[in-house]
Amino acid sequence: MKFEDLLLEIGGFGRFQVLILAILCLLRINLPMHFLLHNFLAATPSHHCAIPHQEAFVNLTTEEVLLINIPQKPDGTFSSCEMFSQPQFHLLLNSSRQPENKSIIQHCQHGWVYDHSQFTSTISTQWDLVCEQRGLNQATATFFFIGVTMGAMVFGYLSDRFGRKTMLQLSLVCSVVFGMLSAASVSYTMLAITRTLTGVALSGLSLIVLPLGMEWVDVQHRTFTGILTSIFWSVGNMLLALVAYLVREWHWLLVAVTGPCLLSIVCLWWVPESARWLIAKGKVKQAHRHLLRCARMNGRKDFAVSPETLTRMAADKNMGGSYSYISLFRTPVLRKISLCSGMVWFGVAFSYYGMSMNLTGFGLSIYLSQFVFGIIEIPAKMAMYVLVNRVGRRQTQAWTLILTGLCIGANTVIPKPFTSLRSVVAVMGKGFSEAAFTTVYLYTSELYPTILRQNGMGYTSFMARLGGSLAPLMFLLDEVWRSLPEVTYCGVAVCSGAVAFLLPETLNVRLPEGIEDIE
C-alpha cells in the first residue's frame, strides 16, 4: 500500500488539510518580512559631507554653504562623498565654473549629513555605512543570507532526522530571540552576528513549511498547496511595505517584523507532524494517531487501518535507514537531479534578490516599488497554477527563468529617462522571477523521495541562499561598469533556465517514497 492510497481513504484534501494549510500560510508571511528587510533596514538616504561652521557662513543660505564646500557632479547634484579642502567663495559668483584642480578635493573629514525626510534612521545613518564603507552596508544582506545558507544544511538534515514540526518550532523560537537581539544591537558587529543567526533560524521556516503541507495532501491538490503557500509570501511582501512605511526607525522596524513569529509559535500547536515522515521512521503509533484524527475531521469515520499495516509499509520501503546529503549523489538519476536542481535554485534566487533589492532603479518610490513588486507576484502565481498543470513543471520552470533574464537584460539597454517603460519591464521581470521561485519550490518537493525530501530541500536551499548571498554584492560591480550587475543577473537567469530542461517532469506523478522509486 502506498501513502497516497491511505490519503484517499482518510480524505486527501478535507477540513484537516485546510486547517494545516491555513496555519502554515500564516507562518510563511514571516519570511519576506526578514528576507527583503534589507531594502529598508539598510536604505541609504541622500547625504553629503558635514561642513564645520565658520563665521564667514553666517549670512549665507544652506544652498550657498553647500555650493562653496561641496563639489558638483556633471548633472548638477552635490557629491555625496567629497568636499573642498577650503571654501570656494568664487563659486557664489559663477557656480558653473567648478575648480579643475583636483588636489583641493578630499574625502569627507567630519562625517555626513543625511536627509531624514524618508527615514528617521537606518543602519547606514547610524554607523555611516556610506562612501568607503558602502560595502559593509551591502554585506549586511550577505551576512543574513550566509546564515540562511548554513541553516538550510542544518535544518534540512535535522528535519529528516528529528521531524518537521520539532524543527519548525525550534526555527520560530530562535527567530524571535535573534530578531529581538538584532533590534537591540549597539554596534555594527553585533548587528552582523545577530542578523546572520536570524538567517540560520529563519531557514528552518523557509525549508519546512511547504514540504510539511504537501506531505499531507493528495496528488491532485499538490499544485494548489504549493501556489497557495507561495501567495502568502507575496502577502508578506506587501505587508513589509506597509510596516516599513509606518515604522521609519530601524530598531523598531526589526521589532515590528519579528513580533509575528510569536503568534506563529502559538498557531503551530495545531499542526501535526508529517505522517509520511513518521511512517518512514517507523514511528507507526504516532502516525496512526494523526491519521485517525485526519479521518475524523474529514468525516471518514469508516476509516480503519492497523498500526501493523503501517509497519509493513515502512518495512517494504526500508525507509528507516540512515541517509545524509551524500545520498543525494550516490545513484545516477538522483545525482543528475541534484546537480541540475542546485543550479536552477541558484539562478532563481540570484535573479530574484537581484531585482528585489534594487527598488530605487525603476522610477518609483521605495515603498511603492516594494508594494507593486509584491502585488504583481499574486497574478503571476495564479497563472502558474494553470501553467504547471497544463504545460508541466519543467517547461514552466525553464521559461519563467529565461524570461526573467530577458527582462533584466532589456532594462540595461532602455535609457534611464524612459522611467515608465523601465518600470513596466521591471514589474514584468519581477512577475516572471516570482513565478520561477513559486515553481521551483513545488517542483523540488516532487523530485525527491520522502526519505530524502528535506535533505534535498536543504541542499537546494543552500544553493539558493548562496545565490541570495552573492546577489547584493553584485551592486558593487557598478564601479567597474554601470550595467555589469544587471548583465550578470541576466546571464545567470538565462543559463539556469536552460539547465531546467534537463530535469524530469513530475506532473501527475506520485510522490516518490524511496530511492528505488526515483531510479
Automatic annotation (TrEMBL):
<keyword id="KW-0472">Membrane</keyword>
<feature type="transmembrane region" description="Helical">
    <location>
        <begin position="170"/>
        <end position="191"/>
    </location>
</feature>
<dbReference type="Pfam" id="PF00083">
    <property type="entry name" value="Sugar_tr"/>
</dbReference>
<dbReference type="InterPro" id="IPR020846">
    <property type="entry name" value="MFS_dom"/>
</dbReference>
<dbReference type="GO" id="GO:0015132">
    <property type="term" value="F:prostaglandin transmembrane transporter activity"/>
</dbReference>
<dbReference type="GO" id="GO:0016323">
    <property type="term" value="C:basolateral plasma membrane"/>
</dbReference>
<dbReference type="InterPro" id="IPR036259">
    <property type="entry name" value="MFS_trans_sf"/>
</dbReference>
<feature type="transmembrane region" description="Helical">
    <location>
        <begin position="12"/>
        <end position="31"/>
    </location>
</feature>
<keyword id="KW-1133">Transmembrane helix</keyword>
<feature type="transmembrane region" description="Helical">
    <location>
        <begin position="197"/>
        <end position="217"/>
    </location>
</feature>
<feature type="transmembrane region" description="Helical">
    <location>
        <begin position="139"/>
        <end position="158"/>
    </location>
</feature>
<feature type="transmembrane region" description="Helical">
    <location>
        <begin position="252"/>
        <end position="271"/>
    </location>
</feature>
<dbReference type="GO" id="GO:0006811">
    <property type="term" value="P:monoatomic ion transport"/>
</dbReference>
<dbReference type="GO" id="GO:0016324">
    <property type="term" value="C:apical plasma membrane"/>
</dbReference>
<keyword id="KW-0813">Transport</keyword>
<feature type="domain" description="Major facilitator superfamily (MFS) profile">
    <location>
        <begin position="87"/>
        <end position="508"/>
    </location>
</feature>
<keyword id="KW-0406">Ion transport</keyword>
<protein>
    <recommendedName>
        <fullName>Solute carrier family 22 member 7</fullName>
    </recommendedName>
</protein>
<feature type="transmembrane region" description="Helical">
    <location>
        <begin position="367"/>
        <end position="387"/>
    </location>
</feature>
<keyword id="KW-1003">Cell membrane</keyword>
<feature type="transmembrane region" description="Helical">
    <location>
        <begin position="224"/>
        <end position="246"/>
    </location>
</feature>
<dbReference type="GO" id="GO:0008514">
    <property type="term" value="F:organic anion transmembrane transporter activity"/>
</dbReference>
<feature type="transmembrane region" description="Helical">
    <location>
        <begin position="337"/>
        <end position="355"/>
    </location>
</feature>
<dbReference type="InterPro" id="IPR005828">
    <property type="entry name" value="MFS_sugar_transport-like"/>
</dbReference>
<keyword id="KW-0812">Transmembrane</keyword>
<comment type="similarity">
    <text>Belongs to the major facilitator (TC 2.A.1) superfamily. Organic cation transporter (TC 2.A.1.19) family.</text>
</comment>
